Amino acid sequence: MQDNDPQSTRDLVIAAAIRLFGHQGYEATTVRQIALAAGGQNVALVSYYFGSKEGLRRACAQEIVARIHRIFPTAPDEMPAAGQAAAERQLETLLSLFLDFMTQVPEAEDLAAFVLRELTESGEVFDILYDGVIADRHRQLCRLWGQATGTDPESETTRLTAFSMLGQVLYFRIGRPVVVRRLGWSGIAPAETEQIKKILTTNLSAILAAYREDPE
Amino acid sequence: MQDNDPQSTRDLVIAAAIRLFGHQGYEATTVRQIALAAGGQNVALVSYYFGSKEGLRRACAQEIVARIHRIFPTAPDEMPAAGQAAAERQLETLLSLFLDFMTQVPEAEDLAAFVLRELTESGEVFDILYDGVIADRHRQLCRLWGQATGTDPESETTRLTAFSMLGQVLYFRIGRPVVVRRLGWSGIAPAETEQIKKILTTNLSAILAAYREDPE
DNA sequence: GTCTATAAACAGATAGAC
DNA sequence: GTCTATCTGTTTATAGAC
User: Fold this and answer.
1) Chain D nucleotides near the protein (CB, 7 A)
2) Domain range A76-213, CATH class
3) How many Cα atoms sit within 13 Å of B80 on the Cβ side?
4) In terms of CATH architecture, what is A9-59?
5) Which residues of chain B have a CB within 8 Å of the CB of A177?
6) Inter-chain residue contact B178 with A134, CB threshold 8 Å
7) Sequential pLDDT tens for chain A (216 residues)
């Protein structure tokens, strides 16, 4: 099965594993299913490449970290201290990109499902994901928030408010089946994402305004 | 093992199953683990009481529906048309109760984890949970939101905004490990819940105000 | 690198004693 | 209702041919 594809067998296996682990859970997924979903590969390859099923799990987490870094490069720590209005526009852009990714990019479903599962299990993989993607992005969000409101970017209030904004976006990924059913939609097409985006940007500017005029 | 406990063996098994299914996932949990966690019951009892492991899963979902109804009774459909200010106060109370439940009540962790898992798997149990608890509560939330803003309680905007509020609360349950680590907390004690509550009520009134002055 | 064959453990379900 | 014993299938992991 040595072919000229840019996707090596190893990559195929990881992609299939992320999809299946995310959708069905780690324990519920067998290495046979993964090998089959990776294009009919052999079962023994998993042990050969990753040592064990658990090793494959770690490799999935590292691949997710790398992929998110590719999609959302972290901004440099020293940012040009923009004005409040500019920072608010950057927050809007960030929110918009994040929502688009979460609701429109097909692979985001697999990634989000995988992360979500590992998040509730709090194992070794949780640390890889937290250190690799979550911590940096949240700090970056807080920095922007601080600039947009003129408050301390690392105060408890700012950090919690940043999570409350993330929660709003993430719900439309995690709770997608609920939202779709309650709205009577057949799915979340770009038009529906724009509908959601209008709600979330309204919320964003309303909440920003509240913290600007009442900085606690 | 016939004793005088108010908790029958059946109930013990369901409670243990909700906890384990929620924490580890359905497939990852064996009936042997459940029997052990239910006080060292016998494995064969699961088949005896619920027919199969899948039957136990359904029974868990039905128990969750019943329990949530007990904790949060649904308001009658015809509510006294309260004023905007009164409706806003009711929304605040609802938000506060919901957050308390999600972050403070120990059994909420098991329930939320179970629901979350079933939500991403979209099986038969999802329907039981959606019809049994989610649809009614969301409609009730929209009704209050409509009263507080003077807008149509069943408009797409209102329904989506209600989800965005729910997402904020739920994130502090689902993303709890992330929040705790990022804030440097050792957990979410009542004092931390109050901290979060301050953020969420600020957000609530800011968003309500935005929709009142700009009803779209 | 990729395959087959197989080992060793464990799953859910059931039969039947008590 | 609760138990032991067991059947049947499937799991991960490995040994070894190619």
Assistant:
1) 1-5, 10-16
2) mainly alpha
3) 4
4) Orthogonal Bundle (1.10)
5) 119-120, 122, 126
6) yes
7) 444 455 788 999 999 999 999 999 999 999 999 999 999 889 999 999 999 999 999 999 999 999 999 988 876 665 666 789 999 999 999 999 999 999 999 989 999 999 988 988 888 899 999 999 999 999 999 999 999 999 999 999 999 999 999 999 999 999 999 999 999 999 999 999 999 999 999 999 999 999 996 544
Q: Residue B166 is encoded by which pair of tokens?
A: 């729910």
Contact B48, B41 (CB under 8 A): no
| CATH number for region B73-213 | 1.10.357.10
A134 neighbourhood in chain B, CB within 8 Å:
178, 182
Q: How far is the CA of A3 from the C1' of D10 (A)?
A: 32
Distance between CA atoms of residues A49 and A116, nearest Å: 25
Backbone angles phi, psi at A154, to 5 degrees: -115, 15
**B66-77: string of b/e by CB count within 10 Å (b at 16+)?**
eebeeebeeeee
Measured from the CB, is A42 under 7 Å from any atom of strand D? no
Per CB-CB distance under 8 Å, the chain B contacts of A159 are 182-183
**Of the candidates B157, B140, B136, the residue with the CA atom closest to the CA atom of residue B208:** B157
Q: Do domains A9-59 and A76-213 have the same CATH topology?
A: no
Contact B144, B83 (CB under 8 A): no
Q: Where do we find the tokens 């709890």?
A: B176
Q: Is the CB of B41 under 7 A from strand D?
A: yes
Burial class (CB in 10 A: 0-12, 13-18, 19+), B112: buried
**A102-116 confidence digits (pLDDT tens):** 999 998 999 999 998
* CB contact at 8 A, A34 and A59: no
- Quote the pTM value: 0.93
CA distance A195 to B157: 8
Q: Where are the domains of chain A?
A: 9-59, 76-213
**CA distance linking residue A147 with residue A137, whole number of Å:** 16
Rounded to the nearest 10 degrees, what angle do helices A9-24 and A106-121 cross at? 60
Position A63, amino acid: E
